[in-house]
Amino acid sequence: MSFLDSEQMIIILDALESVTNGMENPGLLEQIKDIPRGSKLRPYVDLVFALQAYYGQNPTRVRAYVTSIPDGSPPARLKPLLSFLAGLTKDAPEGMVDREILKALQQRKSYLETTLEEAEQFLAQNHEESFSDSIAYLIRELYGKFPEPSKQLTLWAWEKIQEKGWDGSLLDAHLKMIFGDLEATRLKALYLLHSGRPGAFQEWTSFLMKLLHTEPRNVKTVEASFMIWIYAAIQEHSDSRRLQEILEVLVRKHPQLKAKYEKVLEDLTSAERCVFARNGSSSLTVGRTVHLPVSSPERCVSPSRKKRDFVQLELFPS
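The structure assignment produced for this chain is given below.
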């Protein structure tokens, strides 16, 4: 084996250790993934990724990597065991490992499951700090591989924080470190909008203001965010000062957007009270009706509590 092969083998062994000890190292995995199929070390690489998939509870990926391991290679000896543990085969491999060890492996809970159970216990015991720390750790661990589930979990965490009447500042600080200030603010605002809680307009205004000052900006993202802001302003008794702040920024940074929604914005700034009409139009002042501009010839219909498409997590995910 050449020096280069020896060096690669050391990296593979380090990567193997990282996926089995709970301290996964993305840098090592990145280094080994491009080792070519023709290399004698490639079966070991596939074994590493098969184990990663097993611990990540992804049987489809386990099958793909196990299948890639040549039958005559040393790592192939573990193929039957991995296939069984991942639920790909029904019968345990004979003579490979003690039955009690197999039973323990099958009953093993992942550290993520354990962390979630701990977070739920802290929640039941009214320990806000411990709950926030545990759930933030879980969100951070999920975010790298499963960004959307991590954001769904974030919305759940905000729901529980609100139900308990907790301050939420510690969770907020954690989330800003995980997602960044902009995305953390968006997720909190999405929860408030979706749950119909007070403060949604203020929170979404904070997000929109940050978005407008972020470079570069995606025009479609800005417009989608702006339309949600209009909805939030209609739903709540909007603060005229915050309205004016947004309008001033729009004039400078997105004059075409302000022009497009000129009529709605005029009514927002002059309305004494705002309600969202069920007939598909926005009744912004008594006796006056304004239709939000949309690409479809149909009117912009007020979303129900059960289906608010524009506040779903899939909206311009960052």
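Interim note for the steering committee: Residues 272-318 have pLDDT under 50 and may be disordered. The longest strand covers residues 282-285.
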